[in-house]
Design a protein that fits this description.
single chain, mainly alpha, Arc Repressor Mutant, subunit A, Tetracycline Repressor, domain 2, 2 domains, globular, disordered N terminus
Length: 236
């Protein structure tokens, strides 16, 4: 069957339906992360997921539809990470509150990198760009709330701060070679984790100190522990 897609057999019902769809998404993420969207064959995904190509097209319509579903699945996992986060949490430790409650999926990060490479210079938006922008805005609004309460510096661009914090948390996993060259330590090593965690904790404390908010927050040792846990999970 061609990669173009066709509707075929109906999927199995009930729990098996959900399990099959999740299995396809898991395999597709690994394939897209390893080869890019353009380099992936639907037949290869079907073989690894132990389903027919027709089944994949039944669920997702096309390879593009499958790619969009994989991307949405990953972004929504990050979205749930913000459930219950308050401006007070962000002020206490912005890195941990906004980015540190969910272990980063290295495959999903590589998928995003492939998307950037494959859309660069084409003028085409990345998959689910509007949804991703909405998700990013939630983080920005939490930062703005903390600024409005006087817990983070009001003169900082909230969107740029959110982006900078995001980059800080993901950089060692996204660019392990650069991290090794710049620091002299392996990004997965205990030495790197300890040094990077300490640096991120100091940065969080520095943001709070500009507003005098440190007096209302836990002692530095406690804050550093939270920041360390966040960085360790983000780059594991």
């Amino acid at each position: 069957m061609s990669e173009g897609g066709a509707m075929g057999e109906a999927p199995d019902a009930g729990r098996g339906n959900t399990d099959t769809r999740e299995r396809i998404l898991d395999v597709a993420l690994e394939e897209f992360a390893a080869r890019g969207v353009a380099g992936v064959r639907v037949q290869a995904i079907a073989d690894r997921a132990r389903v027919s190509v027709r089944m994949i097209y039944y669920y997702f319509g096309s390879k593009r539809g499958l790619h969009e579903a994989v991307s949405t699945h990953g972004v929504r996992g990050s979205d749930a990470n913000l459930d219950g986060v308050t401006a007070t949490d962000v002020a206490a430790n912005p890195l941990a509150a906004l980015f540190g409650r969910r272990r980063v999926d290295s495959d999903f990060l590589r998928l995003i990198q492939w998307e950037e490479l494959e859309t660069a210079g084409t003028g085409e938006p990345v998959v689910n760009e509007a949804y991703r922008a909405e998700h990013a805005e939630k983080r920005t609004e939490l930062i703005r709330s903390a600024q409005a309460e006087g817990r983070l510096p009001a003169d900082l661009d909230a969107r740029m701060l959110s982006f900078a914090l995001h980059a800080l948390m993901r950089a060692p996993l996204a660019f392990p070679g650069l991290a090794r060259t710049a620091t002299g330590a392996e990004p997965q090593s205990a030495e790197f984790s300890a040094r990077y965690e300490a640096t991120l904790s100091h940065l969080s404390a520095a943001l709070r100190s500009r507003t005098g908010a440190d007096a209302e927050e836990p002692a530095r040792g406690e804050g550093q522990t939270e920041g360390a846990d966040a960085a360790r999970e983000a780059n594991a």
